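2024-03-11 09:14:02 DEBUG pipeline.ingest accepted 1 chain
2024-03-11 09:14:02 DEBUG pipeline.ingest length=58
2024-03-11 09:14:03 DEBUG pipeline.predict start
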Amino acid sequence: MDFKNLLYSDFLYYLFGIIVLVTVFFLMKKITSCLIKTVVMIVILAILSVIYYIYFMQ
């Protein structure tokens, strides 16, 4: 077995793994920021709905 080819294939394997991890990190950052904004908006709408119901529907 040739040591250079083994080292080169392992290097490419680890490089590919690092690229995949960085890509997944950025995708998760985008997705979670969008989900957090959505959750915050739903909470704000729920609070405003409760305030409207308590103060204006009685």
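2024-03-11 09:14:41 DEBUG pipeline.report The two ends are 83 Å apart (CA to CA).
2024-03-11 09:14:41 DEBUG pipeline.predict end
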